[in-house]
Queue: 3 jobs
Job 1
Amino acid sequence: QVTLIESGGTSVQAGDFLILSCTISGGSSRSYAMAWFRQAPGKEREFAAAINWSGDTTYYADDLKGRFAISRDNAKNTVDLQMNSLKPEDTAVYFCAADTRFCGPAYCSTSYFEDDWGDNWGQGTQVTVTS
């Protein structure tokens, strides 16, 4: 078990960019694949982006591909989510999650991450995008 703490959430205007960070403690980040999820008001939590243990493989929700970028620094035990061209519909609580599992290249899908993935979760950080 590791502890995950998200930071960087704030209120921004549409079109702005924002970088969220997740700090991993209580274990080696190299043992975990990492992902970001988000939950908008009144909606279910949804998958946003994931990265494997070494950082050389990433996967994104289709509607976020090209606009969001996930990265990690295992030396610092951090995982970042850069969000560009933010839209009001990106308003949500963003959660960081860790799991020892990661999909193989041919098996990655949104459902893979939304179906019982994530052994460890952070408390979330609020992102609000105003028009």
Job 2
Amino acid sequence: LQLVESGGGLVQPGGSLRLSCAASDFTEDYYVIGWFRQAPGKEREGVSCISSSSTYYYGSTYYADSVKGRFTIYRGRAKNTVYLQMNNLKPEDTAVYYCAADSQGVDCGLSSILYDYWGQGTQVTVSS
């Protein structure tokens, strides 16, 4: 499974961006998908995740407290894409954002050790 992120860029505080995570496997909706970020000098942190669509947990989403109410994760109509809509961006959201897939899980979590496939990352910079 290969994951490719896109949609990053430079945005002013209060602005919005939508990140995309496209998978080479068209059954991506069977995977738990997570979004993580890593700012310079900081550890990678979980931002949001969405559970597998094939189980009881279908549609479940989780968010870090720092992004609740501002970020939304969802699956696109094409089964191989997951999006992260980011609104009201703040300078502290500046980081490289990664999507990741957990091929064994059903419900999702924000610990990076759960995920076994990773994309290369896309830079998000929030600055005036």
Job 3
Amino acid sequence: QVQLVESGGGLVQAGGSLRLSCVASGRNFSNYAMGWFRQAPGKERELVAAISWSGASTYYADAVKGRSTISRDTAKNTMYLQLNKLKPEDTAVYYCAGRLSLWESSTYYHSRDYDYWGQGTQVTVSA
């Protein structure tokens, strides 16, 4: 069992930046592929970014590509999402998710691919 806890959300003006963190506890985090999802009111949960357990492979949704960075620090059992040039449409609850992966370079794109979820952290971007 893996427990995930997000932090770092908040209220920020458009154009600002935030760094979200996801701390994992429980089993060996190093073998888990991870992802960040978000869900805005009235919308479906969507993938923002994903990272393989080795960190060698990453994926970004078009909506955040070029202004976000996903990373992980295995020694700290922590994953990060740096969000820059924030827009009002980035407003959502952001969730981290994880799953055991046998392949060091695999990333996963669908919420159904993940077994563990955090409780979410709210990001609100004002115009």
